[in-house]
Design goal:
Radius of gyration: 22 Å
Number of strands: 12
Distance between the termini: 26 Å
Structural class: alpha/beta
């Protein structure tokens, strides 16, 4: 994929570029938002920008893509590209925006690396960028075509359910009365809301179920961590959106979806609000009569913090061969574990396929434990809420 001449240059310069990617991405975003403030106002997550997590994710993905081109010249990192493309499609990213990113990213590279960016170096990294960008554009085009375009659609809130002190489930139906496209369990939608300062910020929320043929539901955890700004969109949805209000939703996207026949053993492992796609998957498995073993694993601060716990247990109970193991940091009831999730004494059947969602430390730990138990690394799938920092560790 990468020309031989560019591969030599990228291999020689990757250590220097990789070491500077943090500074490069910081200057890139600053320059782009100064020139195009509407992108920060209406497209990029302002909370992630303030925390710096989006910069880390971008740096990690660029470095991982370049490394893959060098180590596997005849292959594309399709799993990574698919995850990014689904996120982009849910935001409505368009091909022309890749040219904007290119302009400001390469200006930042030249600013940070100075004279080290010779014409040969610039040409080699330009090739890397457009290989990645054009691959993403192609995948996103296909996703848009499958879902009828990138349009936002108004949905009316028909029910609001308080799950925990910090989690609310919204059940919605199309305000335009048009048909609803199916979604695959595990997928998410983007929700776009107008804020007080005129911004129209976007966040992704997993679809936690389909309570009716024309209904969808998503569950929102209010973000208010110590020492960090409160979540703009989650706070707006909790404080202001009630039954009868209208919110804008994208079509469903996401590549963490069930892909297993009835004879495939499964592990569905979650922590905190990562429970939402797992509940959707469990609901589907219960409805389809999945026969193989299903191991349901969840960790949370306490039973009172465990959102959708009733659905979590009820769907699992409908399966013919399900094991349910919950862990709580405090107030664990009889039968539940105390502390963090630990699979040491949890049987895992041969040929298991695993799906994980939750904080990165949780997913990394569970992945290692599953691999130790014989699960193939290719059969461990995960979803990250927010920027994907798995590659940026």
């Amino acid at each position: 994929m990468l020309s031989e001449q560019s591969a030599v240059t990228v291999r020689a310069t990757l250590p220097a570029v990789g070491a500077a990617l943090g500074e490069i991405t910081e200057r890139f975003y600053a320059g782009m938002f100064a020139a195009r403030p509407e992108l920060l106002r209406d497209l990029f997550n302002r909370g992630n920008q303030a925390a710096g997590t989006q910069r880390q994710a971008l740096a990690g993905s660029v470095a991982a893509f370049a490394t893959h081109l060098l180590d596997h010249p005849d292959e594309r990192p399709d799993a990574m590209l698919s995850r990014i493309a689904h996120k982009h499609a849910s935001l409505g990213v368009t091909p022309d925006q890749y040219a904007i990113v290119h302009e400001h990213l390469f200006a930042a590279i030249a600013e940070v690396l100075g004279d080290a960016v010779t014409p040969e170096v610039a040409a080699a990294w330009d090739e890397v960028y457009w290989l990645m960008a054009n691959a993403l554009i192609a995948v996103e085009k296909r996703l848009y075509e499958e879902r009828g375009g990138a349009a936002w659609r108004p949905w009316e809130v028909v029910e609001r359910v308080t799950e925990t002190a910090d989690v609310v489930t919204f059940r919605v139906r199309p305000a335009d009365g048009a048909p609803v496209r199916d979604f695959r369990p595990g997928q998410y939608v983007s929700v776009r809301v107008p804020l007080a300062d005129g911004a129209r910020q976007i966040r992704q929320y997993s679809l936690s179920g389909a309570p009716g043929p024309d209904l969808r539901q998503f569950s929102v955890k209010r973000v208010h961590e110590d020492g960090a700004p409160d979540g703009e969109v989650s706070g707006h949805l909790h404080a202001r959106v009630r039954v009868g209000d209208v919110v804008e939703l994208s079509e469903a996207y996401g590549d963490l979806v069930l892909d297993a026949d009835d004879d495939t053993p499964l592990v569905l492992a979650s922590a905190g609000i990562g429970v939402t796609p797992m509940v959707a998957m469990l609901g589907h498995l219960a409805g389809s009569g999945h026969r193989a073993p299903v191991t349901v694993v969840h960790g949370d601060r306490s039973p009172a913090d465990h959102a959708l716990r009733t659905d979590h247990e009820a769907y699992a109970a409908k399966l013919p061969d399900a094991t349910v193991r919950f862990w709580y940091e405090r107030d664990a009831p009889a039968g539940a574990g105390t502390g963090y999730v630990d699979l040491a004494d949890v049987p895992v059947a041969p040929g298991t396929r695993a799906y994980l969602c939750g904080p990165l430390p949780f997913m990394r730990t569970v992945r290692e434990q599953l691999i130790t138990k014989g699960v193939a690394p290719a059969d461990v799938h995960y979803e990250v809420f927010g920027p994907d920092l798995w590659l940026a560790k």
